[in-house]
Design goal:
With 436 residues, the chain is α+β, with helices and mostly antiparallel strands. The chain contains nine helices and 24 strands.
């Protein structure tokens, strides 16, 4: 019997599976899709997501497969003007080893996550969805679309914006469409278009049209109003760029929506990722917010399973729901206004759980309070904190100034304690057993 059944094998579901598998929790992962996602859709990986992925040993592969956001070139008829980049190009520092937004196709991000699941002994079952759900105070029983009944300690609904699990729980998405437009996102190979720039056409009918060169690829990601495809997508893009479209690798249509649920938990079932919140693509927040959901929920499920005490699970909704609401407001604002500003506004490094159930202490050390992100740092033995934290449990940083920091498994400060010590040289890090 799986301890956790994960419904949905997108980026959120797979990240949660990795967090559980690497800590020895039995997981079953199902997805109703017949094949793996093949498009570039959620192509921006934020600095905070990279830090968390580094803690599971995946950041270097993501960085090696992706690239920094290129400079935008604005096209006004025959005139092209070099403008700005939506991503920063900062040099890494000790406390911010991943300071920049990285462009990486969603299919490639998911491929990296799948390989990690396989290395941990996990397996994804395609073509299997959820049909019915019942639960008691001790377990959840799910009927799958293949007729099988599966019992698990907990269920995680990571099954996307149209989440069947959310429907079975009677939860609704609250919010609105941001505008009345329908857009196309597509991956195209275009002959002779300069790959040094993200091409934007701001004066076209229906709104901005853009073509972003995808890293380590011959493809561009198109984002444009659906009117571009009235006479066929290839013909529309050729009319936009004056270049021949060699192929269309993938395409999809979507409405600009800002919606979320008002509960992240129903009994032993938890909702995460797009199943809980749907964002406009502006600011590259949707996929990254889902990853944060997974890292937050993962260590708490481990703690509940290991200790037999589920009280820690009450903090998942308390911490994540306000974050999703704030991100939703941000993406709506970015969508409705033409803003050059991203960076600290969208990199999620400033995300904090201060004042929450797990971070009510107002004590501060070096500007950090419980609930804040703990920056990376070089330790006395030469290792990096994020590297040490790959052990998966809580970590205690024992400081020479006697202010000892307890860091949660997801990299946020749990508490500060003052301990009488004779002397310390630099920092000593003590992994704490379990997911405290």
């Amino acid at each position: 019997m799986p301890q956790v059944l994960i419904v949905g094998a997108g980026a959120t579901g797979m990240t949660l599976a990795i967090e559980l598998l690497r800590r020895g929790v039995a997981v079953r992962i199902v997805d109703v899709a017949a094949s793996y996602f093949a498009g570039s859709r959620g192509k921006g990986i934020q600095p905070r997501s990279l830090e968390l992925l580094d803690m599971v040993g995946l950041a270097s592969e993501v960085m090696g497969s992706g690239g920094l956001y290129p400079v935008i070139k604005l096209h006004f008829g025959p005139i092209g003007i070099r403008a700005w980049s939506l991503g920063t190009h900062h040099a890494p520092t000790e406390d911010r080893p991943f300071p920049n937004l990285v462009m990486l196709e969603q299919w490639r991000t998911e491929e990296i996550l799948r390989a990690k699941i396989a290395a941990l002994g996990g397996r994804i079952e395609l073509g299997v969805g959820i049909e019915a759900l019942a639960q008691t105070d001790k377990q959840v029983t799910v009927t799958l679309t293949n007729g099988e009944a599966v019992t698990a300690d907990y269920v995680a609904a990571c099954d996307g914006g149209r989440s069947p699990t959310r429907g079975l729980l009677g939860l609704e998405l609250h919010g609105s469409t941001v505008d009345e437009n329908t857009s196309i996102v597509a991956d195209l190979e275009i002959e002779g278009l300069d790959r040094a720039f993200w091409h934007a056409y701001p004066l076209r009918r229906g709104g901005i049209h853009s073509l972003a060169p995808l890293p380590n690829s011959e493809l561009f990601q198109l984002q444009a109003p659906e009117q571009i495809a009235v006479a066929g997508l290839e013909k529309g893009v050729e009319g936009l760029t004056g270049r021949t479209v060699r192929s269309v690798a993938w395409q999809s249509r979507y409405r600009h929506q800002a919606r979320m649920i008002n509960r992240y938990r129903v009994g032993r079932v938890f909702i995460a990722g797009d199943a809980a919140h749907i964002h406009p693509p502006s600011g590259a927040q949707g996929l990254n917010t889902g990853l944060q959901d997974a890292f937050n929920l993962g260590w708490k499920l481990v703690s509940a399973i290991r200790t037999g005490s589920p009280s820690i699970l009450e903090t998942y909704e308390a911490e994540r729901l306000p974050v999703a609401a704030a991100v939703l407001d941000l993406t709506k604002e970015l969508h409705l206004t033409i803003s050059k500003s991203r960076g600290d506004l969208t990199n999620q490094l400033g995300l904090s759980y201060r004042g929450g159930t797990l971070a009510q202490d107002s004590t501060a050390v070096d500007g950090l309070r419980p609930g804040d992100r703990v920056p990376d740092q070089r330790l006395a033995d030469g290792r990096r904190l994020f590297e040490v934290m790959r052990h998966g449990g809580a970590t205690q940083i024992m400081r020479a100034d006697r202010n000892h920091l307890l860091v949660r498994p997801d990299g946020y400060l749990a508490e500060i304690s003052t301990v009488q010590v004779s002397s310390y040289h630099g920092h000593e890090v003590v992994p704490v057993d379990g997911a405290r």
